[in-house]
């Protein structure tokens, strides 16, 4: 396998977290309503895979191409109550992520079903990653999902609610982010599970008081809060399985999985860079920066 092929294979694993692994069938489908890579605002990238951005599920970065996004810390705060919006906990969504090679970089365009539909299983299962890649002229298409939120509200800044809507098969999806990974960094790293990766976005995740949250704790004491669970590795995984999920996970030495129920709303705020990892079932977690 040549170096570019290895990089594409590795990128497939990288994308699956918060993004990863195709869930489609091998049945050919009609061409989606998109035929070329979209023209969008560029996101600054980095050559170090430990800080290289991966595709996000919510926010559309609005930093101009000439200006690198400022990496700031995420904070965990408490308030009496979250603002009233549609509850997101256990809401299903899916993503289609075409990958193109542009100017020596692997560029990912992230589309998801949030706000448009709940990713009906029949329509999702009809999608075929290879057919989509051929129709789009992409080197790869990642089908990321189904996923379910384990939080209650998302407050996104910028243009994250105004992305262009495209149709893939029978599924409408909205453009959410453009992510660039230099080819030089695409082969770095030895694995994805339990390894944090930087994601460039500006979001506020709200976890309502009185509802359980699920955490991974590293040997160094870093805390990661689950943001989504996935039916990718285990199609039968449900939100009811999460309290005892630690008995199923292949946790590295020194890692812990725990469940807790906060009394007040928790706000996980990111202004620039979030640090996200996946467990071995491809559930995703965001780091709490103190």
Note down, in words, how this protein is organized:
The protein has 290 residues and is mainly beta. It has one domain. The chain is built from three helices and 13 strands; from the N terminus they run H-E-E-E-H-H-E-E-E-E-E-E-E-E-E-E. It has helices at 3-15, 121-126, 129-136, and strands at 75-79, 92-102, 105-112, 140-149, 153-156, 165-168, 171-182, 197-207, 213-217, 223-230, 256-260, 265-278, 284-287. Strands 1, 2, 3, 4, 5, 6, 7, 8, 9, 10, 11, 12 and 13 form a 13-stranded antiparallel β-sheet that branches. A hairpin with a 2-residue loop joins strand 6 (165-168) and strand 7. It is globular, with a radius of gyration of 18 Å. The termini are far apart.
Overall pLDDT score: 75
Order of helices and strands: HEEEHHEEEEEEEEEE
How many structural domains are formed by the residues?
Answer: 1
The SS-based structural class is mainly beta
The count of β-strands is: 13
Distance between the termini: 43 Å
Summarize the main sheet.
13 strands, antiparallel
Oligomeric organization of the protein chains: single chain
Percent of residues in beta strands?
Answer: 25-35%
